[in-house]
Amino acid sequence: MEFSKSLIQWYLQNKRDLPWRKTIAPYRIWLSEIMLQQTRVAQGLPYFLKFTEAFPTVQDMAAAPEEQVLKLWQGLGYYSRARNLHATAKQVAFEMDGKFPDSYKGLLTLKGVGDYTAAAIASIAYGEPVPVVDGNVYRVLARYFGIETDISSSGAKKQFTEVAASLLPKDDAATFNQAMMEFGALQCVPKNPDCGVCIFNKDCVAFNTGRVNQLPVKLKKTKVTDRFFNYLIVKDAAGNTAVNKRTAKGIWHNLYEFPLIETEGELSVEEMKQMIIAYFKPPRHSGTGSPEEGKATQPDTGFVPADITLLNRERILHKLSHQHLSIRFWEIEADVALPDAISREEAMKYPFPIVIYNFMERYWALNANDLFSANRN
């Protein structure tokens, strides 16, 4: 097939030098594929290197506590991938004697492994002739063949998989699948591809009909929810702070955060100060809430804040796939020592959402009074 031969030739000449391409070990291929879901290679590569250094084998990862896995994953986003990664490592290490399933169907039994990931591992590690179909593949095939099927529709996956399978060389599935993904990542990019130098421009339907920017078709829009978070950084009489573990299902499950007040909209500084005073005012009962429920676990001992300071006048906008978080941080000074508070150094060891961790680093690395004096009220 001319398409397959041309694509593979392009790949061999243009492929990036990546560590997971130098092995057929299923553990490392699985690790790279999980990390690269909804993540660019440039962002995922340092994490792959960190993980393989910390966990050379699947048994090493399985033996590690989940918090260590989440801490290493911090900043990569979509944290359910990290939790599934750890669960799968334990599944392979403890239930499968450390050996990954050696077939597409077997790989689908692993937690967090779907059709695409199973096909990638099966073809690259074991040479099984199964096609991979991800966003890159949808885009390449839709443009080259002029396929106008909405890729978010129910029948799209089956259609594109059949097209990819018809092009797949049975004796070199690994190279072809990697070539498809690489071509979509480097050449047939989502916006403004350089079609003038594309090896397929003579036969590409989208290029020759002026529809490159219209294909692939995706009609379904992602619904985005706006949320307003106010994190309370407590500084008690001993210089310690309070953090909570998010145990409710939802974003950032099993990560840590500061006590939180979530509001339905943006409140004024004075309105928030009154809410913060009420939040800490004794007596109270400890809760088990989370931002999914509009509040977070509170410290065990109530107190009246000695001072409340807004640390960032401009809200930090943190965009997730289905949520936009508008975040403010408040410093809460307490004249009592909280029984469950921990030191700054200890807090930095916990896995936090990256938007919180980055603020912590900035807040604690420099003198807070100097750094945020312009924001004080």
From TrEMBL:
Cofactors: [4Fe-4S] cluster
Cofactor note: Binds 1 [4Fe-4S] cluster.
Reaction(s) catalysed by this chain's protein: Hydrolyzes free adenine bases from 7,8-dihydro-8-oxoguanine:adenine mismatched double-stranded DNA, leaving an apurinic site
Sequence ranges assigned to domain HhH-GPD in this UniProt record: 35-186
SMART domains registered for this protein in UniProt: ENDO3c (SM00478)
EC id: 3.2.2.31
Gene Ontology MF: a single term: purine-specific mismatch base pair DNA N-glycosylase activity
InterPro entries: A/G_AdeGlyc_MutY (IPR005760), DNA_glycosylase (IPR011257), HhH-GPD_domain (IPR003265), HhH_base_excis_C (IPR023170), HhH_motif (IPR000445), MIG/MutY (IPR044298), MutY_C (IPR029119), NUDIX_hydrolase-like_dom_sf (IPR015797)
GO biological process: base-excision repair; mismatch repair
Alphabetized UniProt keyword annotations: 4Fe-4S, DNA damage, DNA repair, Glycosidase, Hydrolase, Iron, Iron-sulfur, Metal-binding
SUPFAM superfamilies attached to this UniProt entry: DNA-glycosylase, Nudix
Alphabetical list of NCBIfam families matching this protein: mutY (TIGR01084)
Record-stated family: Belongs to the Nth/MutY family.
Function: Adenine glycosylase active on G-A mispairs. MutY also corrects error-prone DNA synthesis past GO lesions which are due to the oxidatively damaged form of guanine: 7,8-dihydro-8-oxoguanine (8-oxo-dGTP).
UniProt-recorded name of the protein: Adenine DNA glycosylase
Gene field: mutY
